[in-house]
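Fold this sequence, please.
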Amino acid sequence: VITIPITIDHDNLSWFELSMTGPAGNTYECKWYFKGKKEQEESENGSIDDILDIFMEGSLAEIMELVESGVDVNLTDQEGVTPLIAAAQSNPDLEVIKYLVENGAEINTWDLSGRSPLFMSIFNENPDVFRYFLEKGADINTVNKDGLTLLMIAATYDLEILPELIKLGADVNAIENNGWSPLLYAASFATDTETLDLLIQVGADTEIRLSNGWNALMCAAAYNENPEILKYFIDTGQDVNIVDDNGYTPLMYAAEYIQNPEVALLLIENGAVVNHKCKSGNTALILAASSNNTEVVSVLINAGAEINAQNNNGVTPLLSAVMSNDYTIVEKLVSNGADVNLCENFSQGSPLHYAIINSDMEIINYLIDHGADIDHREEGDFTPLMIAIRTGREITLIKKLIDLGADVNSVNNFGWTPLMIAVSHNHDLEVVKALVEAGADINSRDILGANALFYAARDTKNPDVITYLLEMGADAKILIEEIWTLYEIGRLNENLKNTEALQQLYDACHSE
């Protein structure tokens, strides 16, 4: 029992949360509710959200009625939003703002997201709301908890008030907590170059770089869908092959994050190295394939991207596309020469292995039809057939692999066969039958001397599998560790308890 002394302001607190970390790193969260002033306001005037909506959109008369009925002008919702913050953002009636301030609304309050009335006023369609807060003494260069300034927000959203902020002395080279300046925000999110012009004309530092090595061009390549923004910085002389701390170039970020192929094309036309590898060995094509960025994949292939490039883990563009379940990119890569049997190097998994793991029948069929090795073994010595069985894939896939000649008697480094895996992991009698009918050796032994019937007795959830294996001649008289009969193994399987199959196993173990 933990006793924590706390002091509660019942008039201004409707809920209280406590989070603590206990033994083994477990986190416990508690929440207490108090019937106080806020709760009374909610019951009398609707929910806090409803009340704040009125402050955002209501008329002066409606808001006066609320306040006169006892609603606290400094109440907050669970995000810390006050009536003045709400009104500053969306209510264009300056008289509403003045009324709230004159009736005690706090101007210098912040919500939990770091928004104040002044910050939100720059989104208001009436610029006089913003100007009013300045008249009341608000600082044009005030920052929130993240170090964000008004100019950074205006630059991010292309707000019409941006020129006025600059004229009023907003710091164009202010830096927020993560090292971003107004220009870097504009490079990332501006929809046209006018914002860039405004900032640079008054001295914005165009050479500023983040701690990870990003400059304005890199920010634009990673976030901005408008190629004109990138062209703006290229025309000012920024290097299209600049490299950040991870070895990424602007083209690599565009390939991974930007869906507009014109951005990648612009970078390539201005000299971007298409086959550059970052520190992890990724290329732009690998990144585009992993991000389902179909049109950019086409741009890169047309520009000479290495189709079978491998990163440090051996992952190719094709493997990336398979892992991302993108049939269109798989087809595009293979039709341009991608090797369907080139494996990654950390587990030797092939594209077919990963397609089976993802259960994407369209990609599986395509890879098989284009020469995928159906008996390739990955590091765990599992073939595609074994993986399909172990992961419970559809009987149609398993039968297709068998029909195409997959080895039903292949063994991995433990001596396990597809049949052993089927009775131990899959439990589908139809899969077991398909393997046996295709010639699976029912009495093959693994390195411990166990056969398929042993694994069925130990693991199966389907008693009919036991019955079928016995009917097909499975050897029930093997001993495990020279003392355990298969019947004794089967007795430990809850799924065989009180079943006819268990009795059949007993009879088979004790027959002459």
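The chain has a mean pLDDT of 90. The beta strands are 15-21, 27-33.
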